[in-house]
C-alpha cells in the first residue's frame, strides 16, 4: 500500500484495483468511484448575484444519472462563501437603506458603501442554504445527499481521519451522495507554501486540494475538476497563442504559464494543476474541464466519463508518437509545402507511390493477410466487409494504374487561373485554384482507400489525416509507410498522417480549428454519425447508396439482364450497387420479366417485394419493411410503377440522390428521366457501377458526394480544391472610384492563360 501522508490509508475493497490511474480517456468509462469538484465560478452566476440554478440542476442530473448506473459519486462543492457573501450583502444593503431612510426622512437614498465581508462569516451564512438547494435537487431523482464539512485537521488527526473515511464509505454503501466542503467558518488561514510539500503531504487550503486529498484518501478512480475555463492551456487563456492541452503529463508544468485565478473562490489554475498531479500520483485519474459553458455544461460530466475529449486529461502514460492535434498541425504545414511544389514534383511523388504498390506487393498482401485472419478469427466482420478488406494482386495493379492517371491529370490542378477580370486600369483580378487545407478521411475496411485518397490529396496540395478501421490496421500501416516514403523524395513526408492513437471519431470531428473538411468512407451509419457529430467542419459524402434501375416498356431485352446483373451482382457491397429495381407495370408476366427473375435467381439474389409488386402476386417474396434500404449484399427490392413519371417520383421519395438508371430504347423517355431525376449521377442504358472516380477518368475518388454544395458525384482532384482571389494594383484606393473620383470601374473579362496541353 502506498502512503501519501504519515498515516497509511484504510483499505476498502473496490471493484477496480486501485493504485494506478487510467492511461487513456477511453478507459474512464470503467471508473466506479468518482469525485466531482465544483468551483465557485461553476456554482455562482456570472454576475455573482446568486447561484447558477440551471447549471447546478444540470450537474445534479448528470451526477444522479451516473449514480443510478451503479457508480459511487461524491461532490466537493464550493460556493458557500460566495453564496453567503451575496446573502450578507443583501442583508446589509437592506439594513442600511432602512436606517438611512429613517435618518434622512427622504425616499431617495444616497450611495451606500458595503463593508468588506469576512470569509468565515460568509461561509456560515451560505452553507445551510447551499446544502438545502442540493438536497431539494437530488430529491427529484430519488437520491439522498449528505453534507460533510471538513478541515485540514480532519486529515492529520488519525482518529478523525478514520472517522471521516468510515463515514464516507458507509454513505456510499447506502447509495447516498456525500457533498463535501471545507468548513470555512472555522478553518484557519493556510500557511504560506504549505499546500504541497513534495508528494507526500497536501494541505487543505481550498477545495482543489480538498478534492485531491479526498480522491486519494478514498481511492477514487476519477476526479473531475470543473471550473470556468475549458481546461489547461499552454499559456493564459485568452492570449493569442493559447492552445488547450488535451493530455497533461507530470513534468510538463515547466512549459506552462499560469494566468490569474478564478473570478470567485480561492484556487487558481496553478492550484488545480498541483492538486491534480498530486491525485494522479496517488492513483486517481484527473480531468479539468469547463463547467460553465452553456453548450457543454449540460453533459460535460457524462461526456468525460464516456471518454470523450473534453477538457484536459492528466495521464502518467505518454504516447510514443505525436498527438492527433500535433499530427493535424504537421499535416497543415506539410500540405502548404506540398502545394508550393512544382506540379511535376507532386506528380513524381504519385508516380513513385504507384511503383511502390507493385514493387512491395508481397509485403502489402502479407500485412493484409494478417488483417483478414484476425477478422475471421474474431468473427466481427460480415462477408461484404471482408470483401472490402481483402487486397489482391489485381486490386493493387488497378490501384497503381489509377494513381498514374491522377499523376498525369494533376499537372495544372493547383494554381490554375479560372477567371481574370480587369477591374480598372492597372488593377487586375484573378481567381485561382488552391487546396482546401487539411482533410480528415475516415474509412472502414477499405485499405485500398488509403493510397487512392493520399494520391488525390498530394495532387491537390492538401494536408491529410487518415483514420482507418482497426480491422485493417496492418494493411493501413504498410500503405501509409509507402506513402510517406514516396512523399520523402521531395521532403514533404509529414503531409499525410495516419492517426494511430485511441482517438474516437467523435473527438476527431471536434477539431474544427485544425481540420477543414471531413470525408467519411464507410457504412451509412458511420456517415450519419459523422454528419451528426461534426461541429463547424463541413462533411462531404453520402449516408446511403440506395440506387435504382428503372426498366421501361421500351427496354431492350439484350440490355436489361446484362445491366441489372452488373449493377447488382458485380460487387453488391459497393455503394453504387443496385438496391431497388423498378419495373413498368406493362412488363409484368412478360418473357422479359421472367428473364429478369430467372437471372436474379441464378445469381442467388434474394428478392423483396414492394407493396405494389406484392399486390400483383398470389405467392410473393417477402414484402419489404421499408423502400429505403441499402442491402449491401445479394438482395434487392422489386417494385412496380405505372410510368416514367412515377419512377422519377419514387426515386425522389425513397432514393438517396446517389445513382439512378433508366433502361429504354425511347430517347424521349430517357431524356425525361435524365433531366428530371435529381441525383448526383443519372445514367441511360448503363450500369450503376459506372458511378466511380476511376471509371469517370478521375484516376480515383475520395468518395461520392450527394450534397449540393461544392462537389457532387464521384469526387476527384477538382472536388478537393477551392479558390482564392489575387488582386494586383498600383497605388489604387477605393476613394478614387467615388462619384467625384478620378477612376472608373471597367470590369473587363480577360483571356485565361493556356492550360498545359499534357
TrEMBL record:
Species whose genome carries this gene: Setophaga kirtlandii
Protein name (database record): Delta-1-pyrroline-5-carboxylate synthase
Domain Aspartate/glutamate/uridylate kinase, residue spans: 32-290
Matches recorded under Pfam families: AA_kinase (PF00696), Aldedh (PF00171)
Secreted keyword on record: no
Biological process annotations from GO: L-proline biosynthetic process
Summary of subunit composition and partner proteins: Can form homodimers/multimers.
HAMAP family: ProA, ProB
Amino acid at each position: 500500500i502506498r502512503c501519501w501522508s504519515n498515516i497509511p490509508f484504510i483499505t476498502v475493497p473496490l471493484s477496480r484495483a486501485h493504485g494506478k490511474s487510467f492511461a487513456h480517456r477511453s478507459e474512464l468509462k470503467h471508473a466506479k468511484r468518482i469525485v466531482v469538484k465544483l468551483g465557485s465560478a461553476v456554482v455562482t452566476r456570472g454576475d455573482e448575484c446568486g447561484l447558477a440554478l440551471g447549471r447546478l440542476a444540470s450537474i445534479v442530473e448528470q451526477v444522479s444519472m451516473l449514480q443510478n448506473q451503479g457508480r459511487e459519486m461524491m461532490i466537493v462543492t464550493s460556493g458557500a462563501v460566495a453564496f453567503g457573501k451575496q446573502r450578507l450583502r443583501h442583508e446589509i444593503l437592506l439594513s442600511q437603506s432602512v436606517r438611512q431612510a429613517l435618518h434622512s426622512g427622504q425616499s431617495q437614498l444616497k450611495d451606500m458603501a458595503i463593508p468588506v465581508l469576512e470569509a468565515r462569516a460568509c461561509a456560515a451564512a451560505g452553507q445551510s442554504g447551499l446544502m438545502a438547494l442540493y438536497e431539494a435537487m437530488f430529491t427529484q431523482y430519488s437520491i439522498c445527499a449528505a453534507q460533510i464539512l471538513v478541515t485540514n485537521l480532519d486529515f492529520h488527526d488519525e482518529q478523525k481521519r478514520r472517522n471521516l473515511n468510515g463515514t464516507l464509505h458507509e454513505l456510499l454503501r447506502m447509495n447516498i451522495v456525500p457533498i463535501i466542503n471545507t468548513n470555512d467558518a472555522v478553518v484557519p488561514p493556510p500557511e504560506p507554501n504549505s499546500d504541497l510539500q513534495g508528494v507526500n503531504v497536501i494541505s487543505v487550503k481550498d477545495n482543489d486540494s480538498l478534492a485531491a486529498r479526498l480522491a486519494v484518501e478514498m481511492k477514487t478512480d476519477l476526479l473531475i475538476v470543473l471550473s470556468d475555463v475549458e481546461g489547461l492551456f499552454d499559456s493564459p487563456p485568452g492570449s493569442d497563442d493559447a492552445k488547450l492541452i488535451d493530455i497533461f503529463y507530470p513534468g510538463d508544468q515547466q512549459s506552462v504559464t499560469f494566468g490569474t485565478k478564478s473570478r470567485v473562490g480561492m484556487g487558481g489554475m496553478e492550484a488545480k494543476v498541483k492538486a491534480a498531479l498530486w491525485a494522479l500520483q496517488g492513483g486517481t485519474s484527473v480531468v479539468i474541464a469547463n463547467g460553465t459553458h452553456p453548450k457543454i455544461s449540460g453533459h460535460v460530466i457524462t461526456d468525460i466519463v464516456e471518454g470523450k475529449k473534453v477538457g484536459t486529461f492528466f495521464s502518467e502514460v505518454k504516447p510514443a508518437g505525436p498527438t492527433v492535434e500535433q499530427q493535424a498541425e504537421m499535416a497543415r504545414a506539410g500540405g502548404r509545402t506540398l502545394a508550393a511544389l512544382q506540379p511535376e514534383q507532386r506528380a513524381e511523388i504519385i508516380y513513385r507511390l504507384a511503383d511502390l504498390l507493385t514493387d512491395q506487393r508481397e509485403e502489402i498482401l502479407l500485412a493484409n493477410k494478417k488483417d483478414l485472419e484476425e477478422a475471421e478469427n474474431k468473427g466481427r466482420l460480415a462477408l461484404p466487409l471482408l470483401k472490402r478488406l481483402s487486397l489482391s494482386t489485381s486490386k493493387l495493379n488497378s490501384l497503381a494504374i489509377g494513381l498514374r492517371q491522377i499523376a498525369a491529370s494533376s499537372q495544372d490542378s493547383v494554381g490554375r487561373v479560372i477567371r481574370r477580370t480587369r477591374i480598372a486600369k492597372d488593377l487586375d483580378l484573378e481567381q485561382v485554384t488552391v487546396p482546401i487545407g487539411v482533410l480528415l478521411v475516415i474509412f472502414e475496411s477499405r485499405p485500398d482507400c488509403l493510397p487512392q485518397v493520399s494520391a488525390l490529396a498530394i495532387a491537390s496540395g492538401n494536408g491529410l489525416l487518415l483514420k482507418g478501421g482497426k480491422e485493417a490496421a496492418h494493411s493501413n500501416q504498410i500503405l501509409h509507410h509507402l506513402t510517406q516514403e514516396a512523399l520523402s523524395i521531395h521532403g514533404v513526408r509529414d503531409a499525410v498522417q495516419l492517426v494511430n492513437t485511441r482517438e474516437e471519431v467523435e473527438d476527431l470531428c471536434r477539431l474544427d480549428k485544425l481540420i477543414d473538411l471531413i470525408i467519411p468512407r464507410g457504412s451509412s451509419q458511420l456517415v450519419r454519425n459523422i454528419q451528426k457529430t461534426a461541429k463547424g467542419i463541413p462533411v462531404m459524402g453520402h449516408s446511403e447508396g440506395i440506387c435504382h434501375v428503372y426498366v421501361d416498356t421500351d427496354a431492350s431485352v439484350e440490355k436489361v439482364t446484362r445491366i441489372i446483373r452488373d449493377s447488382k451482382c458485380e460487387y453488391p457491397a459497393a455503394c453504387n450497387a443496385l438496391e431497388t429495381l423498378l419495373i413498368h407495370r406493362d412488363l409484368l408476366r412478360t418473357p422479359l420479366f421472367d428473364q429478369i427473375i430467372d437471372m436474379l435467381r441464378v445469381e442467388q439474389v434474394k428478392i423483396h417485394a414492394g407493396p405494389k409488386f406484392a399486390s400483383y402476386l398470389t405467392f410473393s417474396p417477402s414484402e419489404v419493411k421499408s423502400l429505403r434500404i441499402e442491402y449491401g449484399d445479394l438482395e434487392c427490392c422489386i417494385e412496380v410503377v405505372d410510368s416514367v413519371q412515377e419512377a422519377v417520383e419514387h426515386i425522389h421519395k425513397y432514393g438517396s440522390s446517389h445513382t439512378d438508371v433508366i433502361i429504354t430504347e425511347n430517347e424521349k423517355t430517357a431524356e425525361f428521366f435524365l433531366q428530371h431525376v435529381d441525383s448526383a449521377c443519372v445514367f441511360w442504358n448503363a450500369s450503376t457501377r459506372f458511378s466511380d472516380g476511376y471509371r469517370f477518368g478521375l484516376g480515383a475518388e475520395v468518395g461520392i458526394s450527394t450534397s449540393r454544395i461544392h462537389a457532387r458525384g464521384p469526387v476527384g482532384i477538382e472536388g478537393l480544391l477551392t479558390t482564392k482571389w489575387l488582386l494586383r494594383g498600383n497605388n489604387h484606393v477605393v476613394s478614387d472610384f467615388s462619384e467625384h473620383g478620378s477612376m472608373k470601374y471597367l470590369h473587363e473579362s480577360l483571356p485565361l492563360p493556356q492550360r498545359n496541353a499534357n
